[in-house]
Design brief:
The complex is a heterodimer of chains A (225) and B (222). Chain A is an alpha/beta fold. Chain A has helices at 24-37, 54-62, 68-92, 103-112, 117-123, 140-150, 169-191, 202-214; strands at residues 12-17, 42-46, 96-100, 132-137, 194-197. With 222 residues, chain B is mostly helical. The chains are: A alpha/beta (225), B mainly alpha (222).
């Protein structure tokens, strides 16, 4: 197993991170369209998307089977499957991989749930270090507003109801997101996350992100010959 | 806790031990790898596809284990039960190691496990001896127990021998490292069972678990 930071691949890995409602998925989708239009071989990998683990996760969420440690480990299992299947092979082939949420999501959430920070980092040691990890930072009230206004019902684990901080889903969600945000803030210097101010317009953010990505791309594109 | 390679008779002995302990008035639960409510089914389904990556499988095992630790083992221990487990973290770590997974990594994941009161290792001398047991059990060679995913041999037989030989080696090293109590599993079930009961009695006496007098035990068992 090659540990974090030691992989050497010709491909590039760009990931987006941030609390729910920070607008990171929108930004990544725009990056994907742009790179595709530019003719780069680009792959998209989403958090929680391994077909092997999906049924287990779904069942556990529905029946509230998780503890903080098993929540963490099952997500790590999912992530390992993605790494072995969707991330490393394209990177070896020299492609660009875009990931919506990465290990920092696990670090933020699991530590907010009380898992030991060193343990969670150990579990994910096999992960490939991203070329750039963007952290879309939106103040808590902005992010919460986007989520609460856009969705009728908050989910059990998403709002941290499993922790028993509050019986009120909205209250619990706010508390949980607050803890997650401070974990992200702590990780900016620890992992060298690239901070993007998510309160600005979508276009402004996209311009900044594209510039940073461009500086890492050589002119190696797959042309249709 | 009982450890041992595939086919050495772990489940037989767990069942015998359980009945014996209950007859002496101890409440017992038994548990084993991939039996968790959370991940057991998922692992079995994933394994039938044979498409599991090495790291993914190890983490799936860890999820299964921690689920059983937190939801079965710890609550039972707190309520004064004796917990018998068919394989513990050592099997998981040995499987990982044989598959070339970074040993410090897998150990750091399992560091949140509880150190058992005793580990009984049902040891067999050679992989050939295991083959006989596999064949007489009627089950035949299993894909994963033969280590087919690591491509060690031309066919199930070659692969099984090589894989189980490596497992035995890792277990021998762990015996020294973690202080397993070794039982020779080549002898008869009766003899292994008797040795196991004596060893368990020593652990129970050491920990001052008072046995319930016979009459009382039979009433509490209905």
């Amino acid at each position: 197993m090659i540990p974090y930071g030691r992989h050497r691949f010709p491909g590039k890995l760009f990931v987006v991170e941030g609390t729910d409602g920070s607008g990171k998925s929108t930004q990544l989708m725009l990056i994907y369209q742009w790179l595709k239009a530019e003719g780069y071989p680009v792959f998209f990998s989403e958090w929680n998307s391994s077909p092997l683990v999906k049924d287990t996760t779904k069942r556990a969420k529905k029946r509230h089977l998780f503890t903080p440690a098993t929540f963490s480990l099952l997500h790590a299992t999912d992530f390992a499957d993605r790494t072995e299947r969707d991330i490393i092979p394209p990177l070896k082939a020299g492609a660009i991989v875009l990931a919506d949420r990465y290990i920092y999501t696990a670090f933020a959430r699991d530590v907010a749930r009380g898992c030991d920070p060193a343990w969670v980092r150990d579990v994910y040691k096999f992960a490939v270090k991203p070329t750039i990890a963007f952290f879309f930072r939106a103040p808590l009230d902005v992010a919460i507003d986007r989520i609460v206004s856009g969705r009728p019902q908050l989910k059990y684990y998403e709002s941290g109801l499993d922790m028993g901080w509050s019986e009120n889903p909205e209250e619990s969600f706010k508390l949980f997101q607050g803890k997650i945000l401070s974990e992200y803030d702590r990780m900016v210097s620890e992992f060298g996350l690239t901070l993007v101010d998510a309160t600005r317009s979508i276009e402004q953010q996209q311009r900044e992100v594209r510039q940073l990505i461009m500086s890492h791309l050589e002119n190696r594109r797959f042309r249709s010959h | 806790m009982i450890e041992g390679t595939d086919g050495v008779g772990r489940s037989t002995h767990i069942a015998l031990l359980r009945t014996w302990l209950e007859s002496r008035g101890h409440a017992v639960i038994d548990t084993g790898m991939t039996r968790s409510v959370l991940a057991g089914r998922g692992i079995k389904e994933a394994k039938t596809g044979h498409t599991l990556g090495r790291l993914t499988l190890q983490l799936f095992y860890a999820t299964d284990f921690i689920d059983r630790l937190e939801n079965e083992i710890l609550p039972a221990l707190r309520s004064g039960f004796i917990v018998l487990t068919d394989r513990y973290i050592y099997s998981a770590m040995a499987r990982a190691e044989v598959r070339g997974i970074d040993a410090p990594w897998i150990r750091s994941i399992y560091q949140i496990a509880l150190i058992p009161d005793a580990v009984f290792y049902l040891r067999i001398n050679t992989a050939q001896e295991l083959v006989e047991r596999v064949l007489t059990s009627g089950g035949g060679f299993d894909f994963w127990e033969s280590g087919m995913d690591v491509h060690l041999g031309q066919d199930f037989y070659d692969s099984f021998i090589e894989y189980q030989t490596r497992m035995l080696k890792v277990f021998d090293r762990m015996t020294r490292e973690y202080g397993f109590q070794v039982l020779d599993a080549s002898t008869s079930v009766r003899r292994v069972g008797a040795t196991l009961r004596r060893a368990v009695t020593r652990v129970i006496e050491r920990d001052h678990l008072v046995e319930v007098p016979l009459a009382q035990a039979s009433t509490s068992q209905k």
